[in-house]
Design a protein that fits this description.
With 152 residues, the protein is an alpha/beta fold.
Length: 152
């Protein structure tokens, strides 16, 4: 583990009077990298917030200078499960997160405030509208190795 917040503790949600729910990935010390628990929690939170009648739109963003740099590769080091099991769980969580974003009843916006890598790109591409800051960029690391993109 990296010693950072994980799961629901790594996410903040704020809803304004217009029903705009902003979900912030709050792990800036690791550039908002996703461990498995945080990916799963984000999918659950998106579903819960979208189900609220007062929600008109969901905005997903990252705390600090990054949107999300994708999978937190350091978080797998402390796991007692075999690497192939952890990798499968991570891929399944990423795919489930992307499917959830695509399927919710309200529009989802990505406010990409900095780098988005790996599954972070998949999240940014799954939303209805992505708005990128001037410091933002999208990077699929695995495509350089001839592998399919994370979460895609």
């Amino acid at each position: 583990m990296t010693g950072t917040n994980s799961g629901r503790d790594a996410l903040a949600v704020d809803t304004d009077d217009l029903g705009i729910a902003t979900i912030t990935i709050n792990r800036p010390e690791v550039m908002n990298a996703f461990d498995i628990a945080t990916m799963e929690a984000l999918g659950q939170l998106v579903s819960e917030v979208a189900a609220e009648q007062s929600t008109t739109v969901i905005v997903i963003t990252g705390a600090g200078d990054a949107f999300t740099t994708g999978a937190d590769l350091q978080s797998h080091g402390g796991s007692s499960e075999p690497p192939e099991v952890s990798a499968r769980r991570s891929m399944d969580a990423a795919a489930a997160l992307v499917r959830t974003i695509v399927r919710v009843r309200v529009p989802v916006v990505a406010a990409v405030n900095g780098p988005a890598a790996g599954v972070g790109v998949s999240v940014a591409l799954a939303v209805d509208i992505a708005v990128l800051s001037s410091s933002a960029y999208l990077f699929f690391a695995f495509s350089g190795l001839g592998l399919m993109p994370d979460g895609g």
